Amino acid sequence: MSRLRLLWGATTLAILAVLGFAGWILSLPAATAVAQAPVVPQTEADALLAALKSTKGERPLIAILGINDATETTDYLLPSGILRRADVADVMMLATGPGPVRLYPLLQVIPDATIAVVSGAKYRESSMTRLAILTSASSPSE
Q1: pLDDT, tens digit, for every residue of 30-60?
Q2: How far apart are the C-alpha atoms of 108 and 124, rounded to whole Å?
Q3: At 29, is the pLDDT very low, low, confident or very high (cuts 50, 70, 90)?
Q4: Domain holding 125: CATH number?
Q5: What is the dihedral of CA 48, 74, 120, 85, to 10 degrees?
Q6: Which member of 33, 122, 127, 136 lies 3.0 to 4.6 Å from 61 by CB, making a disulfide possible if both were Cys?
Q7: Cα distance between residue 113 and residue 120, in whole Å
Q8: Residue 117 structural domain
Q9: How far is the C-alpha of 97 from the C-alpha of 113, rounded, in Å?
Q10: Is 115 exposed, middle or buried, given 0-12, 13-18 or 19+ CB atoms closer than 10 A?
Q11: Minimal CA–CA distance to 79: which of 97, 93, 99, 68?
Q12: Is residue 62 in a domain?
């Protein structure tokens, strides 16, 4: 008797679960129309890029800093890829020390330089100011 009751209970529970799932699926909204982004005229795109260009005649230098032990993949690779693709500035990928930068969770990349190498090199004066700020903010010894 208890075996038969257990079987009926399990069957009833399975039917209620299937009916509940079907009710949930039917309550979902219908497929929505896909919105299309408006087309940006080429003149507007050119005007935007012209406004982003440096007025001093030299290209700005952007340094993306990564910690050798563990850096998020999107924090290190995404900005450098977007900025290099936009071609509005020179982009350097820096590391806190020599060797590859380990990206969480799996990748490793070789940076362009380390902070120590860049701070000792002769870069453009305006770029050097920005890199010096990065160096002093990230160095525990200073």
Answers
A1: 877 788 889 999 999 999 888 877 677 777 7
A2: 29
A3: confident
A4: 3.40.50.880
A5: -30
A6: 127
A7: 11
A8: 54-138
A9: 9
A10: buried
A11: 93
A12: yes
